[in-house]
């Protein structure tokens, strides 16, 4: 399964490690993806989302109802 946040759309980014001697080697910056279950009253059931830590904060601020509505409007299955 891909490392992608269903709320923010965060995906892994590429970068470089730089050593003391300035040698550059490729590395990958992965988002902090968590699998969380939320109860959605309008659906009457729980939904399982793969969200980043920032996505969890967005859900806390805006509410699960509006976030799930936005995800469903994009055509993703929840």
TrEMBL record:
Pfam families: Ribosomal_L28. This is Large ribosomal subunit protein bL28. GO terms for molecular function: structural constituent of ribosome. The lineage of its organism: Bacteria, Bacillati, Actinomycetota, Actinomycetes, Micrococcales. InterPro entries: Ribosomal_bL28, Ribosomal_bL28/bL31-like_sf, Ribosomal_bL28_bact-type, Ribosomal_bL28_sf. Gene3D superfamilies: Ribosomal protein L28/L24. GO terms for biological process: translation. Belongs to the bacterial ribosomal protein bL28 family. Residues 1-27 are annotated as: Disordered. Keywords: Ribonucleoprotein, Ribosomal protein. GO terms for cellular component: ribonucleoprotein complex; ribosome. It comes from the Bacteria.
